[in-house]
Amino acid sequence: MKREYSPLSASRLKRGSGFARPSQSLPERVTLESSALDVMTNLRNVGVVTVRAKTQMDRANAKMIRYGVRTLLVLDEHEKVAGLITAQDILGEKPMRFLQEVGGTHSEIQVNDVMTPESELEVIKLTDASRAKVGDVIATLKAAGRQHALVVDEDAQGNQTVSGLFSATQIARQLGLTLPSYFEVDRTFAEIEKAIAAV
Fold first, then answer.
1. Do residues 38 and 49 touch, judged by C-beta distance below 8 A?
2. Are 135 and 161 in contact (CB under 8 A)?
3. Of 141, 158, 137, residue with least CA distance to 31
């Protein structure tokens, strides 16, 4: 017997309607003993902002400002991770060093000229992150001298998928610290350590 299907009732979209966005609810406050997952941006729940490796650096900076982020995941032409670019990469010394070595103009600098390429990115396995504390993440970022760390899932064949991100800024915010909008790595960790010492 053939089943009968009925069309669903439809109506016009109301003016001013929003749309659902992926979201993640992290605790407002954490301690050094809180689970590391309490400060990890889970990319399965929150869409990551990406940029192509061949994009002009100034356009990548504008994208960071537009989305209110300080890090972009850099993709190659096959939609694979090519690297990571941060506001520090764009606003720091890297562009000037690149121009001194290669020449050209500031407007010609591309993301792949100043990003950290995937071959130099250190990652944390999700299995390790799930057993770690916030204090462990801070120690990891400090030891690497970086503001961000990528977290990866690994399948049985050893293939990795970037599934999370740790950010010193996010951690500082959740620890209750107030940091200036632009700062250096050393200053961020100095502020975190100062707050830890006061506890």
1. no
2. no
3. 137
Contact 121, 84 (CB under 8 A): yes
Q: How many residues does the chain have?
A: 199
The pTM of the full predicted model, rounded to 2 decimals, is 0.77
Paired tokens of 162:
């970037």
Name the phi and psi angles at 24, rounded to 5: -135, 135
Query: Considering Cα of 175, then 177, then 179, then 181, what sign does the dihedral take?
Result: positive
The CATH number fitting domain 36-198, selected from 3.10.170.10, 3.10.580.10, 3.40.50.720, 3.40.50.2000:
3.10.580.10
Cα(148)–Cα(48) distance, integer angstroms: 14
The string of pLDDT tens digits covering residues 113-152 is 999 999 888 899 999 999 999 999 988 988 888 888 999 9
State the residue for tokens 């966005």: 21
| First and final C-alpha spacing in the chain | 72
Cα distance between residue 70 and residue 17, in whole Å: 29
Q: Which of 118, 125, 126, 22 is nearest to 78 (CA)?
A: 118
DSSP conformational letter for 37: G
